[in-house]
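Quick note —
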Amino acid sequence: MTYSIIGTGNVGAALAGQFARSGIPVGIANTRGPDTIAPLASALGHHVVPLTLQDALAADIIILAVPFRAHTAVAKALSSWSGKLVVDAMNTYGIAPEELNGHASTDVVAAAFPGAKVVKTLNQLPAKVLAQDPVVNGGRRVMFVSSNDKEAELAAAKLVADLGFAPILLGSVEQGGMLIGMGGALILQNLIKQGG
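Predicted structure written out below.
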């Protein structure tokens, strides 16, 4: 399984740090090119590799860590999303509810990536907390996972666990995804699961 992070802001950098801490190779890209990512990759070590956007889109699991509106530009960068697992790690800060037209933000993302399996996770912690070691006082920070595709949900949950978090599966986007959209994420952030 190969992984990439699209976005090098606070969330993308925090996630890259978790991959590096866990010893899991990951590509990272932005729209400005790999040279702009070299200092971050150098600071995090050899597990984090700067890539072009096109090269990053070759990964099996692609994590979106861009501002919400930017996901449409990423979607247009690949002609077919069939067989890809896209992790929606974005929040809808600054997005009016009318812009989502009554839909969960993850459903809006899924519509932009036809053929992809989309999972909502890695979004509920502030970037500063997301960057910290997920093991806290003998427990692990909780990370919620939701998808309309059970296989994708399980694959994303495995990644979340491999990164050191305690995944909690919430089921479909309609059932659980709304909970970890921006409002719920703010209420449920930074929970610790003890004993595992």
